[in-house]
Amino acid sequence: MMEESFSTKIFGATIEFGVGIVKNLPYYIEKLNVQNLLLVTDEGIIKAGIIDKLSDILKSANIKYAIFSEVQPNPIDRNVIKGLEFYKSNNCDAILAVGGGSPMDVGKAIRAVLANNSDIKNCYVPANISGDKPILIAVPTTSGTGSEVSTGSIITDTAINRKRIIRHIPPSLAVIDPDLTIDVPPFLTSATGIDALSHNIEAYVSTRYNPLADAIAIKGIQLIAKNLRQAVKNGSDIDARKNMSLASMMGALAFNKGLGASHSLSHQLSTDANVHHGVANAIMLPYVMRFNLEFAIEKYADIAYAMGVETYGMSTIQSAKASIRAVYDLCRDIGLPDSLSAVNVNSDMIKVMAKKAMEDHCHLSNPRVCCEDDMLLLYKFALEGEKIK
């Protein structure tokens, strides 16, 4: 593979992308005039040896840092509060968030609370956070959330056990090195990959107008369809990993345009049933696509083509229906469950989750307007895995 890298600024995000580019981290830190980093990560990233690699790079350049790793897979407000205390007690002046969406969301939330000079409870949307300090560098180690380029941070408010959003500016710099994703195990590669797919698909059919985001999203869908199976099958395939890193980043750029009902439903599955966010989307997305079908026929037809469906000779509605099957088949091919019952969700849980899903902001840009009964019905379809034809 020819070595490929690029630098760009888009939708407020500043990006350095390339295989092996993490070695340039000291150079980026020096340019940003940072003295003492809070390195936000989680125990899984430490056990995987990734922090050791970064520590060697930082130590060789005499860069001071303190590691905060008390981040849960579905981060909660207490993770942010504790990280903020750690930042202050170690006299840090910048944040380096390393990992999947959870460490990056915690890092972004710590930054937002500092910028707002307030308690976390005063930072949730609709709060307007205008400060831009401290510096935040985001280094993703999975290809899923795209949190390294997005403005939002999803944190569970433990007072009401519901995911809430803190919206700020994107990280100061995203350093995206596909080489850091090589050792991600197959199941996590599958789950995070479908998270990226759901971002691109829901952004593409979002009711908000942003043709630039549409162009990014449809290319992201194509990259995932062509590369996710291979990334799961052979994690050391750097081309597949590179393209998944691109698609993940593109999905988060695209959802500046908004998301949809699948994310509203999936957020509750994470908080109430402890289901991995990517797995939740893998289960819910085909049912949401079927629910939306008649309200986004042409765009779903575009998605079918991007997914690699041979649409020649099909009508628009046939192509649109084929997109749903293509997504469903991809999720099954990479080993993800096809029902909520397979992830220990039962019928007693879904009524409460349906109510909470309506309180989640993501469905507001869904192509079909939702009510609580719709959310409940979608959960019911997914409970036993009603087959997608």
Which characteristics define this entry?
seven-stranded mixed sheet; 389 residues; 13% strand; 2 domains; alpha/beta; globular; Rossmann fold; 14 helices
Compose a concise summary of this entry.
With 389 residues, this protein is α/β, with parallel strands linked by helices.
Give your account of this protein's structure.
This protein has 389 residues and is an alpha/beta fold. The protein contains 14 helices and nine strands. It is globular, with a radius of gyration of 20 Å. It has two domains: 5-181, Rossmann fold, CATH 3.40.50.1970; 186-383, Dehydroquinate synthase-like, alpha domain. α6 (186-205) packs antiparallel against α7, α10 (277-292) packs antiparallel against α12 and α13 (347-359) runs antiparallel to α14.
Radius of gyration from the alpha-carbon trace, in angstroms: 20 Å
Count of extended strands: 9
SS content category: alpha/beta
Mean pLDDT: 93
Which percent bin holds the helix content?
40-55%
Overall structural domain count: 2
Write the layout of secondary structure elements.
Blueprint lengths: L4 E6 L2 E6 L6 H7 L4 E5 L2 H5 L2 H11 L3 E5 L8 H13 L4 E6 L1 H16 L18 E6 L11 E6 L4 E6 L5 E4 L9 H20 L5 H23 L4 H17 L6 H13 L3 H16 L4 H10 L9 H18 L13 H13 L12 H12 L6
Parallel strand pairs: 2-9, 3-4, 3-5, 5-6, 6-9
Antiparallel strand pairs: 1-2, 7-8
